[in-house]
Amino acid sequence: MTGTLRQRWNRGRSRVARAWKRVRGERGPRRSPLSRRRRAVILVLVLWIAVVLSMLAYSVLYQMSLELRLTSMSKKTLQAKAMARAGMAKGFVDLRNDMIFDFSDDTIPPFDALGDVWADPSENKEDVELGPGSYTVTIVDEESLLDINQFRAANRIVLEKIIERIGYEEEDAKIVASAIIDYADPDDQPVLELSQGVEGFAYGVYVAEALGESTREDDVERLVFPNEPYLTVDALLDVYGVTPELFFGPDSPEAAYYRDLAGEEKGDRFEMSNRARRATRRKETQFGLRDYFTVHGTGRLNVNTAPQHVLAALFDAAGAPDPDRLAEQIVKYRPGGTSRRRVNNDNAFKSTADMQQNADLASIYGPAQALYRFDVRSSVFTLTSVGTVGDVSQTLKCTVTRGLAQLQRDESFEAIDRAREREERYEDRRQRHQDKDNELLVRQPNIRILQWGGP
After folding, report:
1. Which residue has the higher pLDDT, 48 or 218?
2. Are residues 135 and 160 in the same domain?
3. What's the per-residue H, E or C state across the chain?
4. Which domain-ending residue is among 265, 291, 317?
5. Which tens digit of pLDDT belongs to each residue from 243-282?
6. Do 310 and 361 share a domain, yes or no?
7. Are residues 362 and 393 in the same domain?
8. Within this chain, do residues 182 and 228 fall inside the same structural domain, yes or no?
9. Can you give the pLDDT at residue 355?
10. Which of 348, 378, 408 is the last residue of a domain?
């Protein structure tokens, strides 16, 4: 019995020793190699499962953050569009109010100038805070530029002078000016007197000569002329001889971009003169055709809003001895004085008679008027509204025409009834400046959209 107890005691001690070794991490005598391999495989599987779960969690979190950013961006975009619409509405109201102001003063004939409410940036047009963002709206008078569709052989000299002033030589300027007219005029006869045949063949000969190819009638590749009015100013880039440098201005970033993009050979013979290169080196403002022309004009140039370079080109074509000085004097004369916040219209031309009586314009008015009509009123405007919310901005752009809408009087028509009081106030004014043959007509300021477009 005593031996049996001793054996049990020894076996218990052995079990305790083995358990203690396992606690201390020592190998026990009963751990087999197969058990160790199983533990290693389980550990690797656990690690892989942890990696996969971590990747899945990261993917879900990344997708959620991306969705949040997209939702925030969409929200800001919608808000920015609303800001842009608010700016556009502000522009419409200013154009309409300006016409009401013009017809409310019986002593001064209506005119448009840079001191008007539509042109004044201080009239809640720049960085106007509204809700979560802001808007900025600018209004450009389209009749401050020359309508490219109004040019024919009779006033081609204006195009030639503009092209020369940008940087072409005289002979090249004549060719390009003629091509611009031929591109849009309804006939197929070239404007240049020395050209032979139809437009496509005449300018195809110029291309063949520039490339050193045969000018035989059967070998010349004829150019295509649509003989339709220009729909956009950018269409000038399709005209023979109009290079990106001529359209955008010498050494402009846009010119370099479009030159590399187009890679056309049509403009290789047309190079900018040394005068244009020197002006670029002197960092003078370089204008291109896009800065002179519009396609939304009415064939009249508002002398009160026309920029200096446009007036200088027109005066140069009319034969002024020093067109740049004359244009500068007119631009400085028009405001009559400025304040910190706005320009006034003290010296703005109230009528074409004022232009003829101006000492600087008197001698050149007739020849310039024969080339392109002067006026002091404008009816076509382009509005550009930019709405901004945070780092997101949206742009709306449209061209509108402004005039007096004629509505037939009807006692049951509420709009006419509401306009009756205003009509009575302006009765005398309309008798002098409007057609009153039909007393049943009521005229109200009207803004009509001509075209929506991008910035």
Report:
1. 48
2. no
3. CHHHHHHHHHHHHHHHHHHHHHHCCCCCCCCCHHHHHHHHHHHHHHHHHHHHHHHHHHHHHHHHHHHHHHHHHHHHHHHHHHHHHHHHHHHHHHHHHHHHHHCCCCCCCCCCCCCCCCCCCCCCCCCEEECCEEEEEEEEEHHHCEEHHHCCHHHHHHHHHHHHHHCCCHHHHHHHHHHHHHHHCCCCCCCCCCCCCCHHHHHHHHHHHHHCCCCCCCCCCCCCCCCCCCCCHHHHHHCCCCCHHHHHCCCCHHHHHHHHHHCCCCCCCCCCCHHHHHHHHCCCCCCCHHHCEECCCCCEEECCCCCHHHHHHHHHHCCCCCHHHHHHHHHHHCCCCECCCCECCCCCCCCHHHHHHCCCCHHHHHHHHHHCEEECCCCEEEEEEEEEECCEEEEEEEEEEEEEEEEECCCCCHHHHHHHHHHHHCHHHHHHHCCCCCCCEEEEEEEEEEEEECC
4. 291
5. 888 999 888 888 888 777 765 544 457 877 766 655 655 5
6. yes
7. no
8. yes
9. 85
10. 378
Rounded to whole angstroms, the Cα distance separating 373 from 413 reads: 40
- Name the domain count of the chain: 4
CA angle centred on 208, ends 202 and 209, rounded to 5°: 95
pLDDT for 267 equals 43
Mean pLDDT calculated for residue range 186-205:
81
Residue 400 and residue 268 in one domain: no
Tokens, residue 213: 């190819």
> Max alpha carbon distance in the chain (Å)?
147
- The answer to whether residue 70 is domain-embedded is no
**pLDDT score of 437:** 47
365 occurs within a structural domain? yes
pLDDT bucket at 307, cuts 50 / 70 / 90: very high
pLDDT digits (tens, 9 = 90+) for 324-382: 999 998 888 887 655 445 677 888 888 888 888 888 788 899 999 999 999 999 999 99
Average pLDDT, the chain: 82
User: What is the extent of the structural domain holding 52?
Assistant: 33-62
